[in-house]
Task: inverse folding
């Protein structure tokens, strides 16, 4: 009888374990289309030639707060490529935003947004972009609306990411799942182009213990006594892209010459804003062309990286890979079990349409069903977890 | 006794796996995860204006090939009555003469695709893809590589021989008209043509405006196809795909809300050094559709619009079959007075929440439906025009199921 009771108990325990696993699996994963508690914009630029407009919305019916971090991944010498003697800056700048219920907001990264209640309404007024963010000391329709807080300007050579973490009014991280956002990359001047992608969201769980260690996936550990507080980063990102220098099929049909550049921007999911210690991740690329031929490549990123695919490996070039369209699966190598966030931007150039005839298009890659096996952790300095 | 204890452990483990594994097939409607049904809401072709669409479709399963059944839905407009009935008036309603009126159509054209393991393909909507343009038009027999094949049966008289994976069986037609506006929907099927719950498809659409008539402009608006994931459940009716409600159907249900972050129409691009004006088009397609009886879905879209002052506006408009419309044309023909106009809203950006209310109708026949969609943001400065498409957010589950009926 005792043995039977033990077996029944064992079965019950197993069922609970199964249910727990099931409940964990049934949670949504990293998303680009649902409101979340952490928003990541992997590619944010504020340079002489390009700028970025950030749009963030509170999708809930209550006031929400977020603590945001810019991470500058530009090299120390912006005129030279990143290398051992020219590492990325890895400098973070943080600020807070407040959003009333259902409130959308926006700002230009190079100008930020001044907290100025005297901004003109856009009724009868026109936004002069030169005055964006309170530039020139002028209140303008460009910033009409409830200002979400003082958002610092970045630049003039900012290339990096923006990450916003939903917090409560006291500054503690909370799983409100109320934030969504988009980034619009804008070419200034004659280049005049736009591309747009959705911010990548990580949903929060009720297990959040509201400390400065944000646990993305994984189980109970010393630094994560509550286990996963947010969704895990995906194990694999799946990119459908043209191969580098491939002709655009529409332009080919119109008998126009063209070539394509593909840029991949990647940031590690794990970040320690307290020690400012950059995280290194080795990425592995498994490439399949339309002829079912497979190739592979790998590279290591630290902090933030934005590569043209041919800089990772020449295999991405159309002449090397032998196909025009590729499916590439990107994942962190087993030795560096860290998740990543990614966004892709393609640039198509018409080669016989006159000078500078090109177009950009950004898109969010797909992610796999499986979560990253390891645990990623974002550490926020303790003195930042307090009411602003 | 030891055997009994071992059996107990086994039973317990099996129970854990059974309970834990029940929802391993996780369903969702999302444009960032592979799915069993992929929807491209905007496919556009206009040879006269230099517009065409690139479709990318990939099998994310790196082991098994997949069969796909695709449907182009032609929502172009045609003249009815008058002196030139049937003439395509998509670009200009004034084409219709002699009292004829220009009305949107709804007609589907379907075709099949076979994708090998892990294979991505792309095609141009105005051209299609077939024969030797296919990446792998034929396979070869494993035991006789000099012999081409489309299936294992073709490898006879080499008993037991198998044919390598290929695109044999694929013929993608061009879109049925030029100009063309409409959607593309692709469903994972088995070899017999029955829908199967394999969440292995992903895709992207790119609407390309290319230089024509001496105008050196190149513009690309790209978006991810919207994926509808299968749950693994079945209602036993092979040609009827039940979406929801929630996750209780064969496929995940359509969202209760679509949420769009956008610039209000007529807003200036706030980036210093630019002089563009921004407008946004909203493209919506019904979730429900009856390809068998050629009956489209119908929903009344209820719009809630919030500006940056937390001020709220609302309006509603029916969506039958297809809608591709500038935001400030949804509620009025005079866009300067629209709630989506920047001078009416008072701020540069806003949030629009769209709640589709499925409505049955017999005249014209329609089935109640939820909605899916994308947005296309256009920046215009003097003669220059650039656009960016993006996937809109989704929230909640509709109470009612949506249904896709295929022939």
Result:
């Amino acid at each position: 009888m005792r043995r039977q009771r033990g077996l029944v108990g064992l079965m019950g325990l197993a069922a609970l374990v199964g249910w727990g696993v099931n409940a964990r699996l049934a949670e949504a994963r990293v998303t680009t289309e649902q409101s979340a508690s952490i928003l990541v914009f992997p590619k944010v630029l504020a340079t002489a030639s390009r700028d970025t407009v950030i749009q963030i919305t509170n999708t809930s019916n209550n006031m929400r707060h977020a603590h945001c971090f810019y991470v500058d991944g530009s090299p120390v010498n912006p005129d030279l490529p990143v290398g051992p003697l020219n590492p990325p800056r890895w400098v973070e700048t943080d600020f807070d935003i407040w959003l009333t219920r259902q409130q959308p907001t926006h700002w230009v990264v190079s100008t930020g947004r001044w907290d100025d209640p005297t901004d003109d309404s856009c009724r009868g007024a026109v936004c002069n972009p030169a005055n964006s963010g309170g530039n020139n000391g002028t209140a303008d329709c460009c910033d009409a609306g409830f200002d979400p807080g003082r958002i610092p300007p970045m630049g003039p050579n900012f290339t990096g990411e923006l990450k916003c973490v939903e917090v409560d009014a006291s500054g503690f991280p909370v799983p409100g799942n109320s934030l969504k956002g988009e980034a619009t990359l804008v070419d200034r001047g004659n280049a005049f182009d736009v591309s747009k992608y959705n911010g990548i969201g990580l949903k929060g769980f009720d297990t959040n213990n509201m400390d400065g260690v944000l646990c993305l996936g994984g189980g109970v550990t010393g630094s994560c006594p509550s286990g996963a507080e947010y969704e895990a980063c995906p194990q694999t990102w799946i990119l459908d892209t043209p191969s580098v220098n491939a002709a655009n099929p529409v332009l080919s049909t119109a008998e126009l010459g063209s070539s394509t550049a593909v840029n991949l921007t990647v940031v590690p999911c794990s970040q320690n804003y307290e020690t400012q210690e950059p995280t290194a991740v080795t990425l592995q690329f498994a490439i399949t062309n339309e002829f079912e031929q497979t190739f592979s490549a790998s590279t290591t990123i630290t902090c933030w990286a934005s590569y043209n695919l041919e800089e990772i490996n020449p295999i991405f070039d159309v002449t090397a890979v032998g196909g025009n369209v590729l499916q590439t699966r990107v994942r962190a190598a087993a030795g560096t079990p860290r998740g990543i966030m990614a966004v892709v931007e393609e640039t198509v150039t018409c080669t016989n349409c006159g000078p500078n005839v090109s177009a950009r298009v950004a898109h969010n890659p797909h992610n796999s069903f499986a979560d990253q096996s390891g645990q990623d952790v974002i550490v926020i300095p303790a003195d930042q977890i307090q009411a602003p | 006794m030891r055997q009994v204890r071992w059996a107990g452990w086994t039973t317990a483990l099996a129970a854990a796996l059974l309970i834990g594994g029940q929802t391993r097939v996780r369903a969702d409607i999302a444009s960032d995860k592979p799915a069993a049904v992929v929807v491209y809401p905007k496919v556009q072709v206009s040879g006269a204006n230099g517009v065409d669409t690139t479709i990318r479709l990939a099998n994310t399963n790196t082991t098994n090939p997949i069969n796909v059944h695709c449907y182009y839905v032609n929502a172009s407009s045609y003249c009815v009555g008058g002196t030139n009935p049937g003439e395509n008036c998509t670009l200009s309603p004034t084409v219709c003469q002699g009292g004829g009126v220009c009305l949107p159509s709804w007609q589907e054209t379907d075709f099949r695709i076979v994708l090998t393991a892990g294979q991505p393909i792309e095609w141009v909507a105005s051209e299609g893809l077939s024969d030797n343009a296919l990446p792998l038009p034929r396979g070869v027999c494993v035991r006789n590589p000099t012999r081409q094949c489309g299936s294992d049966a073709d490898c006879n008289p080499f008993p037991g021989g198998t044919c390598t994976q290929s695109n044999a069986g694929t013929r993608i037609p061009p879109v049925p008209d030029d100009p063309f506006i409409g959607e593309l929907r692709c469903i994972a099927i088995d070899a017999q043509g029955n829908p199967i719950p394999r969440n292995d498809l992903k895709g992207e659409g790119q609407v390309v405006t290319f230089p024509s008539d001496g105008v050196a402009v190149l513009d690309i608006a790209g978006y991810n196809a919207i994926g509808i994931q299968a749950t693994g459940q079945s209602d036993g009716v092979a040609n009827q795909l039940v979406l929801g409600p929630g996750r209780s159907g064969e496929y995940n249900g359509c969202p209760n809300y679509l949420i769009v972050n956008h610039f209000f129409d007529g807003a200036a691009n706030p980036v210093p050094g630019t002089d563009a004006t921004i407008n946004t088009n909203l493209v919506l397609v019904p979730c429900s559709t009856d390809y068998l009886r050629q009956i489209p879905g119908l929903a009344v879209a209820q719009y809630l619009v919030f500006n940056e002052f937390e001020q709220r506006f609302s309006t509603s408009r029916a969506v039958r079959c297809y809608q591709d419309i500038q935001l400030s044309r949804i509620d009025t023909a005079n866009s300067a007075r629209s709630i989506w106009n920047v001078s009416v809203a008072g701020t540069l950006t806003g949030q629009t929440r769209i709640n589709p209310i499925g409505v049955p109708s017999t005249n014209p026949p329609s089935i109640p439906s939820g909605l899916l969609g994308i947005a296309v943001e256009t920046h215009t400065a003097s003669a220059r025009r650039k656009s960016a498409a993006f996937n809109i957010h989704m929230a909640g589950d509709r109470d009612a199921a949506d249904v896709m009926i295929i022939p």
About this structure: The CA atoms of residues 165 and 353 of chain B lie 45 Å apart. The two ends of chain B are 59 Å apart (CA to CA). Residues 1-27 of chain B have pLDDT under 50 and may be disordered.
